[in-house]
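User: Hi! Is it possible to get a structure for several chains at once, not just one? Here's what I have:
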Amino acid sequence: MTSANRRTIEAMQALAGRDLEETGDGQIRRESIEDGLDPTLEARQVAESLDAVVAQFMRDRASTAKALRAATTPPGPRPRPTLARMEESIRAAFDREPRLAAVFREAKRQSDQDIRSLYDDLVSMGKIRRRGK
Amino acid sequence: MTSHPPQPSAASLEDLAEAVRSLTGDELRRLKRRGDQLAFGTRYSSGLELLGEAVARALVGASGSPRERLKGRVWRRGVNFAAFMAMTMKGLASDSRGSLPVRVERQMEALTGDDGEETIALRRPGVCHSSVEEELVEREESEARLRQVDADARLIEHHFKDDDEVRAILEGEKADWPAERVREEYGMTRRAYDTARTRMRRGVDKLMPGRRLK
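Assistant: Yes, the chains can be modeled jointly so their relative placement is included. Here is the combined structure:
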């Protein structure tokens, strides 16, 4: 039974997909309204959901890099510039790539430790070139 | 000797993040609807979840080592991003709906006799799985997916049970007939065919919200 059912679903998807392709953007907006949805809000919710996926991926990547660094770096003080220089480097990275600022929103309320951690994350992502004091 | 045009380069993580951010409202609404259609019969509970998974796979494809990229989907610059997302969703949906259940069905066919009784091979450790636990988990997941395919197909058939034209175009599509043949066989005008197809798409749109328990 499952093979026949799979064909039913695939047939529906092929037909509905072709119909969607041939339907204009204006008609899709009208259909949203017919369905009681606000088209602008609908698009914004999708955008926010995708933004969250990207932000989560970037954070996971940074934390994986951090864990890898912790596992492979010999213990001891890590060379970092002064706090003021780290903040300057972070600001410059955010200016170059505003998306980074969105991913690391917490950067706006930072303790000294947060700045060090954020600096290390951005270094590990290749967004800042590490420099010593 | 034939020469192939150079393949566009794979997008970086930053390119990809920018492409996601640059999707227009119309593209976002269209992708969500396409996701809703493709989520039927899969483990994804909504088009939005499927679309999110497509973005996640593309991010994996744009980062890391060549080995890591294999686990993701690679978007190449120059390819329309919204079209790439739609194709990625289609591939993920197909994987979720088809590959594993089909593989298990084939394994079961190969390992059972004509009367459906399991052979000694099925009971031999390591033939299909490395452990009993893995076998149980895989079998449970496969059965859940098969149930999902069956339930969603029944939902669609039930929803259109009184609409002869929609049932006709579905049957024609299942038989791989071109639209002209469906119209001839069922005595439909082009307009009747097109409106039945739109009616089916809109009906499916309405089936999606809340159709499945989380």
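Residues 39-72 of chain A form the longest helix (34 residues). Chain A has six helices and no strands.

User: Great, thank you!
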